Task: structure prediction
Amino acid sequence: MSAFRIIKRDSCGPARLGELQTGHGVISTPCFMPVGTKATVKAITPKQLADDIEAQIVLANTYHLFLRPGHLLIEKLGGVHKFMGWKGPILTDSGGFQVFSLSALRRIDEDGVTFRSPIDGSSHRLTPESSIAIQEALGADIIMAFDECTPFPATSAQALASLELTARWAERSRRARQRSDNLLFGIVQGGTFPELRRLSLEKTVALGFDGYALGGLSVGEGSAAMYDVVNEFGPQLPEDAPRYLMGVGTPEDLLVAVAAGIDMFDCVMPTRNARNGMYFTGSGPLSIKQARYCDDPEPIDNLCDCYTCKNFSRAYLRHLFMSKEILSSVLATIHNLRFYHLLMAGMRSALAGGEFQLFKHFFLRGYKGQG
Result:
């Protein structure tokens, strides 16, 4: 029996309402995963994530937890769920993107990647086999095949070599799997080249995974190029498996991708922007550092039901940010994550009621920059 089922399809396009069964609960899709890089979502507690945000699943980072404190320590202490105090599902990435984006002096060969830690400069190695072993030691519900993230810009030849290596590593990742209580997702690469994306998709699907991700996007290619890939290849990912768009994105990105049939998302944007004083609202992003908010008695968003909007004015939130108070990051993170989860809940409700296209139209029409 498949872990994923489609409850309802949009009559006007590929968008769909679904459910994904995991060892730590059922996830309603489409869904957004807050990023808990080092087994913590910055500036918010697991209880707040569950109770205030109503998050269904969080993402933890294989690369960072491998380097510190170490997957074997986390395994010894009962696994990543117990370690971080989160009772819901957890997805771990493979470490491929972090090797690409963070590691100095990395060396890629057929077997894997050798790299130096950004923490202390020590040398480490990741292979498809060790990445899977680390993720299984952590005890994640959803794990990712080890891939090479295609850089941008890249030539067609570079993207081809990268996707072929990713395909070989995907096969090894699949063979390395030891546990049966998790779901393993494969990753489609190929840059912004349609013919290479198609080739990567064919190779990945042929291996047979529990879910499929579009990787290597939101790495500098721009929204138009990303939307071209998502709109063409989102609907081509297997219909009966969850579809995951990695590292994306803005509220507009999420709506466009759900319309293309994507089910799962993660991104640091709501939490990182929160720490920089940027709030998401139904009218667009709001920068609380603007002087015009110094005496503004209104909440961030009158339509938001989060703790921040129920209790605090823009004037107070600006005061916290300008004073560099820790509470500024906490309250902004609560709001931004709740905004994202309300957006996803709105999309699910609209899909259930057969009104997704109408929901998308009205949200995008109202979403504009405030400054």
Observations:
- The first strand starts at residue 4 and ends at 9.
- The chain has a mean pLDDT of 96.
